[in-house]
Amino acid sequence: MTLQQIHYAITISEQGSFNKASEVLYISQPSLTESIRELEKELKIIIFHRSGKGVTLTSDGVEFISYARDLYHQYKNITERYGDGVSVKKKFAVSTQHYSFAVKSFVELVKKLSTDEYEFALREVRTQKVIDDVSSLKSEIGILYLSNFNAPLLTKLFRTNKLEFHELIKCEAYVYLWKGHPLAGRKSIRFEELKEYPSLSFEQGGSGSMYFDEEILSSNHYPRTIKATDRATMLNLMVGLNGYTLCSGIICEELNGSDYTAVPYEPDSEHPGSEMRIGYITKKNLRLSSVGELYIEELKKYLGV
Are the C-beta atoms of 71 and 56 separated by less than 8 Å? Predict the structure, then answer.
């Protein structure tokens, strides 16, 4: 087994087909197929199910790719720190819940580095996908939050997937809405005052999805709810329907515009508040690359921590 074969297998799993992978790797498909066949023969497992629609990982393949990503990531870290004249583009990826501060920090990171030297990826995805991406090392860093409500489940998932959570900042709940909203001028907003307006949240899907919600106080009962899949749609719904969402209060006007505001949520006995512990997850016992460390510095700078 060679590092080249490991790189080939990882690329095929990411591209979903031998044909697309061969184009990315700049080798012929027959050569790629033969290399993977030799790898499977050596390991005595089948890594990929082949079909006319492409390839999928077998159960053995899922486990192998997880270890392969870990190994290849370490190899790239070594070549980055000690290699000389390495011409292969270095990769850096972040998976995050829909946070504008994560995007802004990523922008500042890329400005400091060369896109000729690095291949960057920023993925705004569902909470479960953040965990999956970091677990499989598809992304080096994942941005999400913990609360009293979701922490028991998420920390269990972190342990299962050998992940570590690193806290960046603690925040109380804020109501995020557009400046033309009837409640936008309030010093604080109570839950009862929100009942006639639609609550907006990012769609998570799957069973137990409330534990994966990106919005704080997701266990409350909201009479009117609308799900969205991206940040631009949510902002449009705020304006068009006087919708709102519950968030950390950390907003980036440079990216979201100046038409929105965050008003402190006022808890009461029936609808108590909750603290958000925003942070990032990494693979356990895996040292961050120099680019990963620089990205965390940009996050801390933006958050003031």
Answer: no
